[in-house]
Design a protein that fits this description.
By secondary structure, this protein is an alpha/beta fold. The protein folds into 3 domains: 35-204, Rossmann fold (3-Layer(aba) Sandwich); 207-290, Orthogonal Bundle (Helicase, Ruva Protein, domain 3); 294-400, Winged helix-like DNA-binding domain superfamily/Winged helix DNA-binding domain (Arc Repressor Mutant, subunit A, Orthogonal Bundle), CATH 1.10.10.10. Helices cover 50% and strands 12% of the residues. The strands form 3 sheets. A 5-stranded parallel sheet has the order 2-3-4-1-5, sandwiched between helices. It has a 3-stranded antiparallel sheet with strand order 8-10-9. Helix 6 links the parallel strand 3 (141-147) and strand 4. The model is unreliable at 315-321 (pLDDT under 50).
């Protein structure tokens, strides 16, 4: 009888005890080096335990700085304490990358508060009123965590409605925790929306090498078999991540992929050699994940760049020679406006466009320089930091799906 093709997988030795602990979706019991942020958020949300509305809070920071996991941890603790002590605080978490409109965000929130009811098909106004009714009737102080809040297409309407909804409540309240990778997100809100927020802000800074090393050692102790991860592997993953981004997610993913390589090669230990081999694959994963979390307008700018690079031969100098992959800033802006119009999106001003270009360069997605000898006039030149076709393919799924 022919052996099943999965038999070799189940019988093979692995360096892992629990691979899921190295997943980016895993929430650890302890959050080292985020104690200060936990305490600050706890103080803000503590008002709900005293029958008061909590201040709105906006949390910023680069990918992998612990924003989401910290907020989720505090919300879990708040809900647990409220339930044990019969206090009227209730929370929900909404991933705005998945629920990217005011209507979808409110529907997602209502599923938590009305688990046995289905509101799909009802109007946005009805869903909004139902949320306020829940807070008012049950005297609940609601805290809505909106992760990647900048991905909501009608974010101004959503935030304005939620922040002004408290004026309609006789009892209970609604508070927002907005989470974003974009430090300048709030600057793009309508002045009317900003004035209604009365929010507090918090910025999560990147981890340093020593902090990343401690985080990895703690995860590895539970995820891997004892003695299967060499110290050099942890040091290498921490150093690479600290040097490039200070991103704990990258560091954890490096060690995860290194462990997978060790298993595939039949090795009993994970060393720095496996980490270095995993580096290029992980970098690509992280870049594509970053692209997916960009605000839609930045995605449109990046899509315009990748399309032009993929479809054109580059800048022509006065000598007639072309420099492959290099584009004029002005032609990118024209292409961006064309794409935005084709999708029925409003396009940003040239001033905001220049700001987006600066931010994309900070993220390492593009490289810019001033034109010099051989090119007429003075303009900004732009080139992609990664493969144009791969970026274009990722963005087409995000923008046109």
């Amino acid at each position: 009888m022919q052996k099943n093709i999965f038999e070799s997988v189940t019988k093979s030795e692995s360096v892992f005890v629990d691979r899921n602990i190295m997943s980016q979706h895993y929430t650890p019991d302890k959050l080292p080096f985020r104690e200060h942020q936990i305490d600050e958020i706890t103080q803000i949300l503590g008002n709900t335990l005293n029958g008061k509305r909590a201040d709105n809070l906006f949390v910023y920071g680069k990918v992998g700085t612990g924003k989401t996991v910290t907020v989720k941890y505090v919300l879990q603790q708040l809900e647990e304490f409220s339930r044990q002590n019969n206090i009227g605080a209730d929370t929900t978490y909404v991933n705005c990358r998945t629920h990217n409109s005011k209507y979808k965000v409110l529907l997602s929130a209502l599923r938590k508060f009305y688990p046995d009811e289905n509101f799909i098909g009802f109007s946005a106004a009805f869903v909004y009123e139902k949320l306020l009714e829940y807070a008012d009737r049950n005297k609940k102080h609601l805290v809505l965590a909106l992760d990647e809040v900048d991905k909501v297409k009608d974010v101004d309407e959503l935030i304005y409605a939620l922040s002004r909804g408290n004026d309609e409540l006789a009892s209970g309240s609604v508070s927002i925790i907005g989470i974003s990778n974009n430090l300048r997100f709030k600057d793009r809100l309508d002045p009317r929306t900003k004035s209604s927020l009365c929010e507090k802000e918090m910025v999560f800074s990147p981890y340093n090498a020593e902090e990343l090393k401690a985080i990895l050692n703690e995860r590895a102790a539970s995820a891997f078999r004892k003695g299967c991860v060499e110290e050099s592997a942890v040091n290498c993953a921490a150093a690479v991540s600290a040097q490039e981004s200070g991103d704990a997610r990258t560091a954890v993913m490096l060690l995860l992929r290194a462990g997978e390589l060790a298993d595939k090669s039949g090795l009993s230990r994970v060393s720095d050699a496996e980490v270095r081999k995993a580096k290029s694959k992980v970098e690509e994963e992280i870049i594509f994940n970053m692209i997916k979390t960009l605000p839609s307008q930045q995605q449109l700018v990046l899509y315009a760049i990748s399309s032009l690079v993929f479809n054109r031969k580059g800048v022509r100098s006065v000598t007639g020679l072309r420099e492959p992959g290099v584009l004029f800033s002005g032609e990118i802006y024209d292409e961006y406006k064309r794409v935005a119009k084709s999708l029925g999106e409003t396009y940003i001003s040239s001033r905001w466009y220049r700001q987006y270009i600066n931010e994309l360069e900070i993220y390492g997605l593009i490289i810019t320089s001033q034109s010099g000898k051989g090119i007429r006039g003075s303009t900004r030149l732009v080139r992609l930091g990664f493969d144009a076709k791969k970026i274009k393919d990722v963005l087409e799924v995000e923008l046109f799906a």
